[in-house]
Amino acid sequence: MLSVAITTANQWLWSFVISRVTPYMITSLGYGVYMLFASLMVGMSLWAWWFVPETKGRSLEEMEEVFGVAKRRGEEEGRAVGEERDIGVNEKDGSGKPTSGHVEDSSTSKESI
Predict the structure, then answer these.
(1) 111: pLDDT strictly greater than 70
(2) Structural domain spans, the chain
(3) Compositional bias of type Basic and acidic residues: which residue ranges (predicted)?
């Protein structure tokens, strides 16, 4: 959540800077301001075209490979990461069913209704 707050504050800061500076730029540069912003937009479009990988039609596992995410412990065995760490949720009784369930399951069950 902190990263979201930082990026939002950064966006607001630069929006404020642009809104305060643009009138002065227009009076001194005239139509050159539009050329400046157009060249920045073209430059960023070219950057995105060459440096941001295409992700259309890829699975989440392929996305991890594209962006270089290291495999976490447990993924190589084909089980969910943190399966043993979920206290209560993945603990099983003798029948193989989880020991805890939804809140509704503790007071009433579907069979009793």
Answers:
(1) no
(2) 1-30, 31-77
(3) 72-95, 102-113
In whole angstroms, give the CA distance from residue 50 to residue 66: 14
Contacts of 28 (CB under 8 A, 6+ apart): none
The token pair at 4 is 């979201």
Token readout for 32 is: 């050159």
List all residues 6 or more positions away from 88 whose beta carbon is below 8 Å from its beta carbon: 99, 100
DSSP the chain: -HHHHHHHHHHHHHHHHHHHHHHHHHHHHTTHHHHHHHHHHHHHHHHHHHHSPP-TT--HHHHHHHTTPPPPTTGGGTS-TTTTTSTTTS-B-TTSSBS---HHHHH--TTT-
Measured distance CA(89)–CA(100) in Å, rounded: 6
The pLDDT tens digits for 58-103 are 888 888 888 887 776 655 555 555 555 545 555 555 665 555 555 5
